[in-house]
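[job 0417] fold request received: 2,5-didehydrogluconate reductase
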Amino acid sequence: MSQLNGPFTGGPTLRDGVTMPWLGLGVWKTKDGDEVIHAVKSAIEIGYRSIDTASAYKNEEGVGQAIQESGVPREELFITTKVFNSEQGYEQTLQAYESSRKKLGLDVIDLYLIHWPVKDKFRETWKALIHLQKEGYVKSIGVSNFQTHHLNSIIEDTGVVPVVNQVEFHPLLSQRELLKYCQDQNIQLEAWSPLLQGNLDIPLLQDLAQKYGKTPAQIVLRWDIQQGVITIPKSINADRIRENAGIFDFTLSDEDVLAIEGLNKNHRYGPDPDNFNF
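[job 0417] inference complete; emitting structure tokens
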């Protein structure tokens, strides 16, 4: 992996050779229209180059408008979107991709993910993503919310390994086994809801924030990247978006990284991929 040389100028090289920024803006639950346009334009103006959306978020059009109005060359941006559960299956996925591409106003999507491992469908969905990549419609393909057995299934079925697995990952859900599996397979882990959906009033995080002269949010985001995990905190507040980027001018000690890991309770704020009503 490349050096942690800033949120906007570097990041890990994925197994397909594409470089992805360490830090991105997530737009889950951000309203389409002015809210998402303002958030994305603020992030890009601050220096962010990675934006993460999804069909299910219903804000791809606003993200696309913000990209167009940002004035930043397309090749400098890294745009992720996802195919949702109701859109899965081979042909349906190809149609879903085209719908997302048009809403985003893009010729090519940088990273296209399967949003959830929908039983009896995710294998065919993965084959559709492979096709889209071979045809040049997407640069990189990956998955979201996949457990190790889901990953094994599509790898054994197609021989194609996802470059990214985006999962719920934070100090109360540190996913040790999945992280090791992904590292062994050269699959880049990416954290959604890295900031515990705002539940940062944990004494250890407060203490470390004071120790390093940072906020609890910055401590958690730094913890992500020191483990080689890409992180995409969501915010609609420009000051908070800027604050979330202030994680590249300090380093947590090994002891503090382990202490944060010790907070793990296998606690999910989102659905369990193995027990989810798709």
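[job 0417] notes: The chain has one domain: 25-261. The mean pLDDT is 95.
[job 0417] exit 0
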